[in-house]
Specification:
Blueprint (H helix, E strand, L loop, with lengths): L1 E4 L3 H6 L1 H13 L3 E3 L9 H5 L7 H11 L4 E4 L2 H10 L7 H9 E3 H8 L13 E3 L3 H6 L14 H7 L23 H4 L1 H17 L4 E4 L2 H13 L5 E4 H8 L2
Parallel strand pairs: 1-2, 1-3, 3-4, 5-6, 6-7
Helix pairs in contact: 2-13, 11-12
């Protein structure tokens, strides 16, 4: 099975260690992983700003690069959701349909295709899970509070394999962090306050390491952590799972 690795532009620029952890993790499961060098942004920022017609070149480039792979894996729920559900605005050629069907967020891919019992190493710090809106409500990786009292989801299930794992029990586990891409620029005060509220829940419930499948959310909250000197470390789920793989 040959996997095409799609790394979001902000991960490539600011968090390359997340990309490295993702490819190392997939290779530990003996997958052949390739990183197409000509990949660019998936086009989500343009679409979210009302300029989706300007994003078509990004969409077509993505399809041309990734249609040859058995699966496409991306360490971002928001970018994965965008390809799956927003590439419907271009002609639905066989290649476009294939790409939309075969792209997986890393958490979904590992859950469906990998032996999750291999994540049985030790992790000493208490982990708090952030469920990004796209992963939660778009990719259905967990259940929203308005529909179920059980909101643990796929990341929680993956972490349960870790030896002596401690996971924070939050008061509101499905609350938005306030990032929202361009929203954090246009409504920066609201965005920052939402992020602080989210972090307050983690601090109250003794989170030491904050994780998520979306580095964009973590980037937003990490900025607040640094500015306010909060006692929390931020790690993408790929970094944690790569660390505890046995």
């Amino acid at each position: 099975m040959k996997i095409g690795l799609f790394i979001p532009c902000y991960v490539n620029e600011f968090y390359p260690n997340v990309a490295i952890a993702t490819i190392e993790l997939l290779e530990k499961f003996n997958y052949i992983v390739e990183y197409p060098l000509d990949q660019t942004c998936c086009g989500q920022p343009l679409a979210n700003s009302g300029l989706e017609d300007k994003a078509n070149s990004c969409y077509n480039n993505f399809v041309n690069l990734f249609s040859e792979y058995d699966y496409i894996v991306c360490p971002s729920g928001s970018c994965t959701y965008h390809v799956k559900h927003h590439y419907d605005v271009i002609d639905q050629t066989p290649s476009v349909v294939q790409v939309r069907n075969k792209i997986y967020d890393l958490v979904d891919f590992i859950t469906e295709f990998c032996d999750i019992s291999r994540f049985s190493g030790e992790f000493e710090q208490q982990i708090g899970i952030h469920l990004s809106c796209h992963a939660l409500r778009g990719l259905k990786q967990a259940k929203s509070a308005e529909f179920s009292s059980d909101q643990k989801g796929k990341i929680y299930n993956l972490l349960q394999n870790i030896k002596n794992i401690k996971i924070s029990q939050l008061n509101r586990s499905d609350e938005c962090c306030g990032f929202g891409g361009a929203f954090s620029f246009y409504e920066s005060d609201v965005s920052s306050n939402m992020g602080c509220d989210r972090l307050a829940d983690h601090i109250k419930n003794n989170t030491q390491v904050l994780t998520s499948g979306d580095m964009s959310c973590l980037m937003h909250m990490e900025g607040l952590v640094r500015r306010k000197n909060m006692p929390i470390e931020v790690m993408h789920i790929a970094q944690i799972l790569n660390k505890v793989f046995i």
